[in-house]
């Protein structure tokens, strides 16, 4: 069989060889618990501290504001529930595009007395900052807006939203409302392609995921600004600055820091390369499949994402046929791939249930070539015939 063409990098990325090499000593040789007092353990603690400092430098924040987690889902839960637990019954605003690891914690909180508002995007999948600001109430304590969507790839105007939220904070102080207003972003899809400098984004909390940046799965961080009041979800020995107890996964921490550093170092060059491939792919799709619909903004989107609706098709059948031809793609989020429900993201941008079930996501990565994309389109066109 010919080598498979993998086009699902939004779901998972292979572990970078340099990252694996950095992790290797901590699987067996440097196995010590970093909380122990002998010299070998203290060396492991130094490695964790160095990894935290490296991540903090990339975010342009203090090391004490970086909490290592077991991936994006845990980090999102810690951000949402950790803030909410400090302010019982408060109000939370999120977008209709959020990943389930944001939507489900908010839904759970609403069932237990908190309030929630969901803001819809424009038809191009971009959130209007004014729509977010209008949803904020006097009892709103948290706003969560995904930086870049995992399904349709749209990139949100975080800095504009942050600017508006700062105006609301100023007004609150003037009127004697002392409730904080925190801004969280799920940036799991952004680490490879977008700036993660917190001062440019204006966020108070930010989630990153190692499994999306050629690092180890079940690794990630939550940036927590020093002023944020956060209740830990996991209690115990007080590791991770009392935000997340439990013996640290040293190999994952080292791997995450290395992967994020490599991703940001390669970012500009890789964005330029992928944008050219993305444009080539879209042009081929529109030539070979005239009725294809490109979902999401073409201007404000990740350079590796192409999400399409092909009317009168069935995405499950298409994915099986593509897989048999050696091409691996997706219908949407890998985390909800087993669900029979149409994508909430596609419904939020106005696609019908039928259209949602006729949609495919192709996500490009470091090994993706023009020849692979050409073959993919030709194969898809033949399957549709």
Structure in words:
The chain has 385 residues and is an alpha/beta fold. It contains twelve helices and twelve strands. The strands form three sheets. It has a seven-stranded mixed β-sheet, with helices on both faces. A three-stranded antiparallel β-sheet has the order 9-10-12, covered by helices on one side. The longest helix has 39 residues. It is globular, with a radius of gyration of 21 Å.
What's this entry about, in short?
The protein has 385 residues and is α/β, with parallel strands linked by helices. The protein contains twelve helices and twelve strands.
For the structure shown, list the relevant keywords.
alpha/beta, 12 strands, 3-stranded antiparallel beta sheet, about 375 residues
Strand order of the largest sheet: 2-8-7-6-5-3-4
For the termini, the CA-CA separation is 23 Å
N-to-C SSE series? Answer: EHHEHEHEHEHEHEEHEEHEHHEH
Strand content: 5-15%
User: What structural category arises from helix and sheet content?
Assistant: alpha/beta
Pick out the low-confidence regions: none
The major beta sheet can be summarized as:
7 strands, mixed
What is the β-strand count? 12
Return the average pLDDT rounded to an integer.
Answer: 96
